[in-house]
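Re: weekly structure request thread

Next one in the queue (304 aa):
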Amino acid sequence: MTPCTLTPDGWTTHTGQPCPDTHCTARTRCGHHVAPTELTCPRCINDTRNDLHTLVTLAALMPDEAEHRGVNSEAAYLAGPAAHPEAWSWHKIAARQGRIWHASLTEDDDDWHAYTVLGRWQLMLSEEWGHDDGQTITVSRAAAYLERILHRLAHDPSQDFAQFAHEIRVCRAHHEAVLHNSRQPERGAPCPACSDHGEAAPPLVKHYVDDDPTGASDWWGCPACCARWSEADYRHRVGTRYLAHADALTADQIAHEYRIKPGTLRKWVAENRVKRRGYDGNGRQLYDVAQAVALRETPGRLVP
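Done, posted below.
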C-alpha cells in the first residue's frame, strides 16, 4: 500500500483525500498505517533493529580503526571506555544539587559513543520494567536486550520510541562516518590548485575506494582542474588549514576540531550565545567558530 503524505492539513492519501487511518509515530513523515492500538509500523521497527545490529558491528571494528588513525583520533575515543550510564547519572544529579561540581558533569550526554547510548537506554528501560539482571552493561548485551524489548518499546505510549530510534540512528551514522563506511557525497575545502592559479576554486569532492576498508585509499578530486589529492594530503595540506582558519563551521566540524559537542553547541545557539552563520555548499547549518570557542574557554560569557 502506498504510504500517505503529510501536508499542512494532515495526512492525505495518494489521491489527495484526507486519510482517516492511524499512522506510524516513529518518524514525523512516515506515512504507513498502523492498527488503532499500535504506534509504530513494522518498517520503522525493522529499520531500528537493523541500526542496532549495524552499530554493534561498527563498534567492534573501531579498535582496528583506532590503531590505524592514532590515539588522538575520533576512532580512538569511540574505541575507548566511556562512563557507566548509572554512575554518570548520579554524578550529574549530585553536581546539580551542589554537593560536587565540575564543568564536565553538567554537559550534555554523549550521543556518539555506542556504549553510552545503548547502555543509557538499557538502564532506563530495565529499571522501569523490572528487567535488571545484575550483569555488567556492554555494547553487545545492551543491544541484545534492546532488540528483545523493541516491539514493546515501539508500542508503549509512555515511552519515546521516536527519540530512541533517532539516537540509535545518529550513533550509527557517526560510527559509519568515522569508519569511512558512509557513502554520502562529501565536499571539502576549495581546490588549492585552482586557488594558486587565481581562478575561482570549487570545493573538492571526496571519492571512496570500497576495496580498502581503512579509508587510506580514499581520495579528493577537483571537478574543474581534475587534480587529485590523497586522503592524507587533504588532511595535512587542505583540511587542517581550512578547519583551523574557518570563521564558520558545521556542528560536526566544530566537534571534530574543537571537541565541542553538537548538543552543547545547539544549547548555546538556543540561548543566543552562539550565532548561526548561514549554510555551506551542502545546505548544512554553519555556526560562529570564535563565539563557540570563547564559550568553551569561559562558559559564563554572553555573546554581544
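The first strand starts at residue 5 and ends at 7. Residues 186-244 form one domain.
Next request, please.
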